Give the backbone structure.
Amino acid sequence: MSNTNTIFGWVLASGIVALGLSSVSSKFFHADSPSVEEGEFGYVIEAAEEGAVDAGPPFAALLASGSAAAGEAVFAKCTACHSIEQGGPAGIGPNLYGVLGSPIGGHSPGFAYSSALADKGGVWDYDAMDAWLASPRGFANGTKMSFAGLSSAEDRANVTLYMLENGGGPPLPEVPAEPVDVEGELDGAGEGPGQTEGEPVSPVEAAGAMGDEQPVPEQVSATDTGD
């Protein structure tokens, strides 16, 4: 009987200890407090805004400094689906000879363009081609073209110049003029700091000031030899 009482005593003591620990932990972690809002604990990790990247030079500037020869090497990625020589066959994608300046989704008669591209409207100008090469699906959501795009703006400019070399297209866009830093330039004629601070002087005060005795530089005596 004594062993049984000892066992029950230990069980009862264990239960009391467990209940006490539960009460203490709930108070420490505020488990029973309805005022604690979800997400209050832990560290907040701030992620960079998606798509916040440096735009780099204007596409027109990259076209002006680009190379059609370099674009030919980039176009090698496209040859699995496209040809570019005049009269070349269509593959998975249409022949691209003379594509610049042609209607979007209508350059190659008889080719089965996706409705996303056929209904896009507009022409393949340089801005449209840049956006298309960067992300075909971003440019025309639903396009059948599975190519992910060219992330390098220089590659896009070079391959566009290669297309321009094969079939022509619109004149290259003008490069935007860079802003001129005029800081530090001298004031021109008629320019200056302008009116100084303070109360404006009336004409009467100005006339009176002209009649006031003016300070005269100290005269050096003719007999002063400087010794």
Notes: The chain is about 35% helix and 0% strand. The chain has a mean pLDDT of 75. Residues 2-28 form the longest helix (27 residues). Helices lie at 2-28, 59-65, 68-75, 115-118, 126-134, 136-139, 153-165, 203-211.
